[in-house]
Amino acid sequence: MKRSNWCVILFAALGIGVLAGAVDALFGRVLLWITAFRGEHVWMLLPLLAVAGLVIVFLYAKICPEAQKGMGLVFDAAQRREKNIPVLLIPLVMVSTWLTHLFGGSAGREGVAVQIGAAIGHNIGKRMREPECARILLVTGMAAGFSGLFRTPIAAVLFALEVLTVGVLHIDALLPALIGAYTACNVSALLGLEKFSVVVQPVALTPETAGKCVVLAVLFGVVGGRFAWLLKWAKVRCASLFFNPYWRIGVGGAVIGLLSLLCFSGRYSGLGTNLIELSFCNETVFAWDFLAKLLFTVLTLAVGFQGGEVTPLFSIGAALGVVVAPLLGFSPMLAAALGYAAVFGGATNTVLTPILIGCEVFGYENLPFFFIVCVIAYVCNGNQCIYGGQTVATVYRYEI
User: Fold this and answer.
1) Is the model's pTM score more than 0.85?
2) For residue 349, is it left (φ>0), alpha (ψ between -120 and 50) or beta?
């Protein structure tokens, strides 16, 4: 590619970062307000989840049906199976995710942020002469979207580079992704979107603690992999039971709303940040919390509600770590931090991203622990991934 084109790409990456950071800040701040509002009006809002689901399906069907593919559309565009990511995807995915969370669906937010960034990047890249520009700027947008919302720019860059194809890093997009991610992170910060971080005191890495980390890693990898497998299975099963998307989301929404009210009045609704806070504040975390959150999230997404999987995965991992740590005589807070990162890695089939997520959120002093646990979790996840569009390179991949 010509040097002049690279200058244009790097300048475009800066613009993508600004746009993605600004939209992420709007999306994230409204979502936080919605979460607080729902917590104060649980009994009024959760029974209406089915109605919200019907509205979501209607909006997609009438405004932009192709946007229903969500993250699948992003992967298809990156791998040249699809030529277009409609700009209308951005407001649709934002509004539908706000509705999901307002009325008590268990879902995340990263998928929205990545779709926002990818749509911005891809549509800017298509206007350039070189065909590769669209792909490079799409990857840049993915990094910017992730970084703007979570404010973890290094992990965001690695996520965009490694998640599309197992065994391959899209290294040609490294510098644009870096510019886009750091720009989006700073723009969202300036617009008032706060970063979640916890100081986790490191412990000595001895043969004994390393052995306990191996046990935790296998457990986290299996749970992450099973989440991804169960989500795929549930989507197929729900589609076969209810071919009509209105019936699927209507019945599913009614069931989820009722169960959410019966199960601790919405404890498992929304992002799961309540479980994360409990895990790191020495509050009560039940032994079944991680499993309940897993099942509620799978059901919410399988019937057609919008959102992501990552923040629920963070909460599942943190809750699981807190529960298992006392059985191993391990630090509960460190185990929660390791679970936060490793279950996410196991479900997304990534290894570099969760290591850096752990370091950027909980401190680089714990890098050896995150490295050991996330690598072993990656090996033990059964090569499963929540993103159906992820491909596997023709290179040898260790797995057991």
Assistant:
1) yes
2) left
